[in-house]
Amino acid sequence: QHVVLYPMVAKSLRHIAAGKDPLEGQRHCCTMAQLHDHYSLGYPDLDELHKNPQPLIFDMEMLKVEAPGSYQQDPWAMTDEEKLEAVPMIHQEGNELYRQGKVQEAAAKYYDAIACLKNLQMKEQPGTPDWIELDQKITPLLLNYCQCKLQCEEYYEVLDHCSSILNKYEDNVKAYFKRGKAHAAVWNVEEAQADFAKVLALDPSLRPVVSKELRSLEARLREKNAEDKLRFKGIFSQ
């Protein structure tokens, strides 16, 4: 059979394989309208198939067999109720992976849990009690995700996420602390010092931890200044 609408289906399947939302970039309309909406599907072979429909043969390969009850659905395939039920379990799995030192894998788990809650939150009016309740569940997961990203040295992502938290929750000590560490790592010295000062103002009991971070930053600054002096020594006398 000539499968005219298959390119759109294939695009969604490829999104799923990449861990993306299968409906990304689509609007709520029929498939034919979707095809007219998009100049390109993002894949040259699908664009060609769209222009010149061909008979298709599908080969299915069985990769594994899982026992009943052992299969864990991807967030995009869950119902709203299943997403709410899955979040605590995914959170726990992320914590266990982090304790084992599997930071990247832990970050992926936290991301999945955040995705479940974000999908539910999008259906609520911002600022309503239900929206706020979901946001308060997202925040600790996002902070755990940022901790993983700190260890992976992905500092600018940490800056973005912590700033988004602090835009809503100005008293979140953990967000200030993680953002301060990220600022320090990318040599935003004044910003780092300001964030660490905010940590102390909100929770003075953290002074030993903050002092350690500030001493580390000062040591790195001295080392950097010494390296710069050596690098540029004599450059203006030539």
UniProtKB/TrEMBL annotation:
Which InterPro entries has this protein been placed in? AIP/AIPL1/TTC9, PPIase_AIP, PPIase_dom_sf, TPR-like_helical_dom_sf, TPR_rpt
KW Repeat (keyword) present: yes
Q: Which residues form the AIP/AIPL N-terminal FKBP-type PPIase domain?
A: 4-63
Where in or outside the cell it occurs: the entry states:
Cytoplasm
UniProt key word Flavoprotein: no
Gene Ontology CC entries for this record: cytoplasm
Give the record's keywords alphabetically: Cytoplasm, Phosphoprotein, Repeat, TPR repeat
- Start and end residues of the TPR repeats are 173-206
Q: Per its record, what are the GO molecular function terms?
A: peptidyl-prolyl cis-trans isomerase activity
Primary localisation category? cytoplasm
> What PANTHER family would the database entry show?
AH RECEPTOR-INTERACTING PROTEIN, ARYL HYDROCARBON RECEPTOR INTERACTING PROTEIN RELATED
As for what it does, the entry says:
May play a positive role in AHR-mediated (aromatic hydrocarbon receptor) signaling, possibly by influencing its receptivity for ligand and/or its nuclear targeting.
| Subunit text | Interacts with RET in the pituitary gland; this interaction prevents the formation of the AIP-survivin complex.
This one is known as AH receptor-interacting protein
Q: Which organism is it from?
A: Turnix velox (Little buttonquail)
> What is the phylogenetic placement of the source species in the record?
Eukaryota, Metazoa, Chordata, Craniata, Vertebrata
**Gene behind this protein:** Aip_1
